[in-house]
Amino acid sequence: MSRRSQIVEECEGLMDQPEQIRNIAIAAHVDHGKTTLTDNLLAGAGMISEDTAGEQLAMDTEEDEQERGITIDAANVSMTHEYDEKNHLINLIDTPGHVDFGGDVTRAMRAVDGAMVVVDAVEGAMPQTETVLRQALREGVKPTLFINKVDRLISELQEGPEEMQERLLAVIHDVNELIRGMTEDWDRDWTVSVDEGTVAFGSALYKWGVSKPSMVATGMDFGDIIDLERADKRQELHEQTPLSDVVLDMVCEHFPNPVDAQPRRIPTVWRGDADSELAESMRFVDEDGEVVFMVTDISMDPHAGEIATGRVFSGTLEEGQDLYVSGTAGTNRLQSVGLFMGGEREEVSRVPAGNIAAVTGLKDAIAGSTVSSVEMTPFESIEHLSEPVITKS
Ligand code: GDP
């Protein structure tokens, strides 16, 4: 069986097991390495070639995609990862790095339960680090921290172990100060910690990573890493402690699955009647409940046309359903229902609650629309621009 058909089969098998799903975003200040990290994860999961990850920049360049003959959707990729003897479906949604797209970041955050915040070890936390953290926390999305470009501390800045440790601890401290400031009145502590395994370090460019649990598992500590990096043995470093394993293990262990996340998040992100059957169905990720689908992104596919991507909070999406689109009159009929597998959309017969789905047929939907089988309070109110009415005289 080809790797691709194997992935398709794995993803389909996992979409009915919400405990094994993680819906996540990678969020960062521009140039801190979000794209390079994403490529690493895809390569590690076998979705793109190991050799070119880091150079491919799968998340941003369409031309490059065409040259490689595969379509990586700009916004969404899914992958599978084996952790703790279980396979996991990891759906990654892209978040725009620019401050002006604040609305889009919020929307992307609403569809996920965990956000990996990437910070450049040399630059430290920057203004957009603060913005994305605030957006994640406001949406009840749990953060973890990946400190990137650690190779630069070793090879370029020639820092010794103590200097490096001091710098990395300062980054963690700054990020935690931001988190503390934004969650002062919470009873939950979402600061990140090396000991708990919610912080990882590494180099997305050279594809190696390390965390406290990975050090225990591989026996590689910072001393070994400094030695190999200084000796320019980066391939060895990658093979001994691959970044994608370290980061995806952290995702599976520390980010909540939809069943854990939705009971807590629905009351935060949805302003409708908390006592209604619909609210209950969303809290409990009920695949037999009414359909509630929040659209985060609309993209164009040369073959399928307009594709609406978003999070299924309740019910099960199926081809042929007539669904209400918030802010518009009447319903739209679902033409096809799919999942992202790798960066490509694969049509399936149904997508149950807890997943990120990619569907066609929602001609009235825009990014931010709430799509549902019963009329309901939308996640966000959107002003639809009405088309000019042309009357014949
Ligand atoms: P994004 O804007 O956050 O998506 O950042 P990119 O992934 O596009 O990376 C920005 C620049 O930093 C590119 O030139 C990358 O090659 C470089 N870069 C990314 N990760 C690393 C790293 O771990 N080490 C070094 N030295 N450079 C990196």
UniProtKB/TrEMBL annotation:
Species for this entry: Halococcoides cellulosivorans
Key word Ribonucleoprotein present: no
Compartment annotation: Cytoplasm
Family: Belongs to the TRAFAC class translation factor GTPase superfamily. Classic translation factor GTPase family. EF-G/EF-2 subfamily.
One cellular component term from this protein's GO annotations in UniProt: ribonucleoprotein complex
Domain of life: Archaea
Tr-type G domain span: 19-259
Key words of the record: Cytoplasm, Elongation factor, GTP-binding, Nucleotide-binding, Protein biosynthesis
Protein name: Elongation factor 2
Gene Ontology MF term list: GTP binding; GTPase activity; translation elongation factor activity
Organism lineage string: Archaea, Methanobacteriati, Methanobacteriota, Stenosarchaea group, Halobacteria
Chain positions recorded as GTP binding sites: 28-35, 94-98, 148-151
Free-text function comment from the UniProt entry: Catalyzes the GTP-dependent ribosomal translocation step during translation elongation. During this step, the ribosome changes from the pre-translocational (PRE) to the post-translocational (POST) state as the newly formed A-site-bound peptidyl-tRNA and P-site-bound deacylated tRNA move to the P and E sites, respectively. Catalyzes the coordinated movement of the two tRNA molecules, the mRNA and conformational changes in the ribosome.
